[in-house]
Design goal:
The complex is a heterotrimer.
Chain A: H1 8-27, H2 40-68, H3 71-103, H4 111-131, H5 136-151, H6 154-162, H7 181-223
Helix pairs in contact in A: 1-7, 2-3, 2-5, 2-7, 3-4, 3-5, 3-7, 4-5, 4-6
Chain B: E1 10-14, H1 21-28, E2 40-41, E3 44-45, H2 50-55, E4 57-60, H3 72-82, H4 88-98, H5 114-125, E5 132-136, H6 144-157, E6 163-168, H7 171-177, E7 180-185, E8 188-194, H8 200-212
Helix pairs in contact in B: 3-4, 5-6
Chain C: H1 2-18, H2 20-40, H3 48-75, H4 79-84, H5 90-120, H6 132-154, H7 159-186, H8 191-221
The chains are: A mainly alpha, B alpha/beta, C mainly alpha.
């Protein structure tokens, strides 16, 4: 049952990721006031975007699982939550690394930080929930419910976070982009690289979850 | 799997663990949705109006479905209310007398013996006077005396109007009261016959042959 | 509607007979308040917003104790299956359970809020009545989300540990808003000024009432 297809996404990210790193360090200009630390922003923003995308995928997969009850939707949901948690962790770490020299603190209760942290807690709880349920269909249902219940919290999280004072820079506003053209180009390449890498990872974890479930079926058939 | 059942029949299904007995019963009880196929009751698809169907259904399992902290009477009154019975208190009293628990009506159920709980469980399943009664391993955990009481009760319930489906792996108890016998193995109905078409000893052989067949 | 009432009355009857949830919720909440009072040290006064934080820590920790019990009761003896094969829809069961949880929270807070004012009340401009709007709104949201997640955690092997792990991240924004709103109320600010904080609280309640009503059937049909 192994497919002999060319691993397109991993190959593509093997090209794009180094290219993005090269652009960040050799093409994009060093920011005047923040210096070299600012370069982490390209990764930070790309990671944040795909992390949020993962949770969106998990929510959609959750709804589809509840409606259709097919195993593959659970596998997509599980992959989305896992990758989302890893990427959110990286968002928090890269943010802290930047915040320490710029804000002079590792952590502050800023809306965006708070939002990311709450999302991290919600979806890590999802992972804990998965590990606490034995039966496959029950685990899938509970995880789907939790992924949906977590995602509908996002508007409230944003709303509540907005009421706190913000010191987080808003780089991309609706009217203008506060970046030089070469910085924008770097950011676009970085985002694209991260997106391809992310898609490859999610795809990989999805396949793994499906295989695990099929292995479980086979073991049961042998045992029964 | 496909079978039809006439009104007033008492079907007993046997099978080893994992044969799909409980799954079948759960589908009949609308607890599970069938992955394919349909269930029709009096010509109506189960999926069309499950709530109307549930109102006419009774279910007894090896779990009591009773609240230990409520008294026997409160349990029955609660379920009668849930089913929209016109006079929950009156219905509860009537049922308590039927199962000989009227004297203990105000004791909390948690203090009851297994046999008493089982009697109350049957009373609970009858609050809505169901047309279809489903029994899932009702003999589990009962001693000989309680089991024979249950058998008599089931015979009394089987009054040609009520349809009963029971699943069990207790061959003797099942054959005693059913009008139709079926065997489930590996998710399939491998045997189905009227009670008068088989003799008890022969049926046991059939059962074991069905288990061994690949 | 009458089915909600039968379910609700049944749960409250068990509750008042055994007093397992309200009593332990109130006792534990009071304990948390005393611990925080001791941790604060003698003779120090809290700002209204810190005091509000103290109150909410006690409230959510005590509430999560009771929530787990209310649903776990249905798993004992398989009662939830009996409810599912009855003509009552799972949504009805959800509504009744959420109302039970709301009642239990309000009852325990009827004791906890006075205890809070005895321990921390000196120097606060706002009285207990000023807290009522935000308490009601948070309790509604908390019981809606909590009912859904207590059904989830009741189906797992680690019921008691898992419920706060699942529930607290979801209600974090709720608590953040509630601390701001009650902080304002304790500082004596009028209700109209606090409306921007109360509106998202109400929105949270509505979102989780809807999400719970829709998702609860899937959870309880499992197992």
């Amino acid at each position: 049952m192994t497919s002999r297809r060319v691993p397109l996404l991993p190959l593509l990210s093997a090209v794009l990721l180094p290219a993005a790193v090269a652009m960040v360090f050799f093409y994009a200009p060093t920011e005047r006031t923040m210096g070299v630390v600012q370069k982490i922003f390209y990764f930070h923003l790309s990671l944040a975007a795909v992390a949020f995308l993962s949770f969106f995928v998990a929510c959609v997969a959750g709804v589809l699982y509840l409606v259709r009850g097919k195993r593959r939707w659970d596998a997509w949901g599980a992959a989305g939550v896992e990758v989302g948690v890893v990427f959110t962790t990286l968002v928090l770490i890269t943010g802290s690394l930047w915040g320490r020299p710029i804000w002079n603190t590792w952590w502050t209760w800023d809306p965006r930080l708070t939002t990311s942290l709450i999302l991290w807690f919600i979806y890590t709880a999802c992972l804990i929930l998965r590990s606490a349920v034995e039966s496959e269909t029950r685990r899938a249902t509970y995880a789907a419910v939790m992924a949906v219940a977590g995602f509908v919290d996002v508007p409230i999280v944003f709303l509540s976070a907005r009421l706190f004072r913000s010191i987080h820079p808003t780089v991309i506003r609706s009217d203008s982009v506060g970046l030089e053209p070469s910085m924008i180009a770097t950011l676009v390449v970085c985002m694209a690289a991260m997106l391809v890498f992310w898609a490859g990872l999610v795809r990989l974890r999805y396949g793994l979850h499906l295989q695990e479930a099929e292995l479980g079926d086979l073991t049961r058939r042998l045992g029964g | 799997m496909s079978f039809t059942l006439d009104e007033g029949e008492f079907l007993c299904l046997f099978g080893p663990n994992g044969a799909g007995k409980s799954t079948l019963l759960k589908i009949l009880a609308t607890l599970l949705r069938p992955t394919s196929g349909t269930v029709r009751i009096r010509g109506f698809d189960l999926e069309d109006d499950p709530e109307a169907f549930r109102a006419r259904l009774g279910l007894v399992s090896h779990q009591s479905f009773l609240y230990d902290d409520l008294t026997a009477r409160e349990n029955l009154e609660f379920y009668a209310g849930l089913y929209g019975v016109a006079d929950p208190a009156g219905r509860a009293e009537e049922l308590l007398r039927q199962v000989d628990l009227y004297d203990r009506r105000d004791s909390p159920v948690g203090a009851f013996s297994r046999g008493m709980q089982q009697r109350l469980t049957i009373a609970r399943a009858l609050v809505n006077d169901p047309d279809l009664l489903l029994l899932d391993e009702p003999y589990t955990g009962l001693d000989e005396h309680a089991a024979s009481v249950l058998r008599d009760r089931l015979r009394a319930l089987h009054d040609r109007r009520r349809t009963i489906v029971m699943v069990t792996h207790n061959l003797r108890r099942g054959i005693e009261s059913a009008t139709r016998l079926g065997i489930l193995a590996r998710g399939r109905l491998v045997f189905l016959a009227g009670r008068d078409e088989v003799d008890a000893d022969g049926f046991e052989d059939t059962y074991f042959r069905c288990m061994e067949a690949p | 509607m009458s089915r909600v009432w039968f379910l609700y009355r049944k749960d409250l009857r068990i509750e008042f007979r055994k007093k397992e949830s309200v009593a332990s919720m109130t006792f534990f909440g009071a304990l948390v308040l005393v611990i925080l009072n001791v941790a604060q040290g003698p003779g120090r006064r809290l700002t209204p917003e810190t005091a509000a934080g103290v109150l909410w820590v006690a409230v959510i920790f005590s509430a999560v104790l009771g929530l787990g019990r209310v649903f776990a009761r249905e798993r004992e003896n398989g009662c939830i299956s009996a409810l599912l094969v009855s003509p009552a829809s799972p949504g009805t069961v959800f509504t009744a359970k959420a109302l039970v949880n709301l009642t239990l929270m309000l009852l325990s807070q009827a004791v906890l809020v006075p205890v809070f004012f005895v321990l921390f009340g000196t120097g606060l401009a706002g009285g207990p009545l000023a807290l009522v709007p935000s308490l009601l709104l948070v309790d509604a949201g908390f019981s809606a989300a909590g009912t859904l997640l207590s059904a989830v955690s009741a189906g797992t092997r680690r019921n008691e540990v898992l419920l706060p792990i699942l529930l607290f991240p979801l209600i974090l924004p709720l608590v953040a808003l509630a601390v701001k709103a009650t902080g304002g109320a304790l500082a004596g600010r009028p209700l109209t000024e606090l409306l921007p904080l109360l509106e998202p609280l109400a929105a949270f309640g509505l979102i989780y009432a809807a999400a719970g009503y829709l998702l609860f059937p899937f959870v309880v049909r499992e197992g």
